[in-house]
Amino acid sequence: MYITKVDTNKYRATLSQTINGKRKRYTKTFTTAKKKDAVKMAQAWEQEVLTKGSSDYTVYGLISAVWDTVIKNKSPNTVDGYKACRKRIIDTLDDMPASDLSPRVLQKWIDKLANMETKANAHKKRRYSPKTIRETYFVLSRCCSVAVNWEILPSSPCHDIIMPIGAKKEAHILSPEDFTKFVDNLYTLPLDSKVMFELALFCSLRRGEVLGIEDKPIGDRIVIDKARYRSKSGVDFVKSPKTTSAVRVCALPQFLQDDIRALREYHASEKKRLGSAWNNSKYLIKSEDGSPLIPHAVNERLRRYTSRIGIDHVTFHQLRHTFASMVASNGTDLVTLSRLMGHANKSTTLSIYTHLFQDDAEIGRDVANTFDDVMKSTAKSHKKVTI
Q1: With a threshold of 0.85, does the pTM exceed it?
Q2: How far apart are CA 303 and CA 312, in angstroms?
Q3: Among 35, 132, 234, 338, which lies 20 to 30 A Cα-Cα from 255?
Q4: How sure is the predictor about 351, in pLDDT bands with cuts at 50, 70 and 90?
């Protein structure tokens, strides 16, 4: 809203508003000798317009109006997640007038979602998880915040809402027996799979971080400063970490350095053998034809491997959990472990005293040497096979 003086003792206020995708403009003239009085009258009028304007919106219309701003600068995967939340909101609130939204109404909506059954697949139903409900509420809250900034809503109704709490699941890790089987049989894997699993298990790398490593000479450490993902629409994209803590230097055990070197030599030989059929991806981990390995293939390779060697299935991220467990059992303190894992959340007090601990590079080297000892003690001479 802006106010201009149009004549002696006369001021005109102009207010613009988008309702259900259409732009509307309102004007009103106020007669008063002082501009500060005109401002007060205009502000009261503005609230009347906004209150009336918000009643013209449905929840669907409000979300549609602000959606492009809500997803602006978000990664493709984040946008996919937001779209799933938007569908959930529209399916359950849809035609409700935006002006009817209130903490009480939203609390009932949250409680309804917590008890609502949804199809997990064609044969099984389950309820929304607390995490899913929190994410859905967050998207609605974000839409309302933008609507307030745009003067579509006079205030946000998203406050003082009690979220459902789920039982905290203990992180699953490889048991000592399964760990031994997992490591003893790595030699049977193609080099791409072997290196990929070793980077998670012995360097705590996330799947996207492993897939984002470029095919360049690598020494005894590697800088992790990006990750590669694939959206639901099949588009690959690379993004930087959300926090500076996730950017880190990882020390590589000697056996992993050797395996990476062997992998790069293998790729070079495959490039010569396949010629023009070789895609020559710039990433270290490749498919059989040299193209970038897709994230889903990582999960599938790990599933097949654990099934073949006869251990309980673990996810790629659970290999990271196993790393954390091994490092913690080795006497590493919480702050050091947090740095090694690339986590952002650390106690402020402990963060202040990080100067009391060893240098990051030395800490990483100690951990890498420990893993070298583990591999030497479990190393076996086997004939290499592929899955």
Answers
A1: no
A2: 9
A3: 338
A4: very low
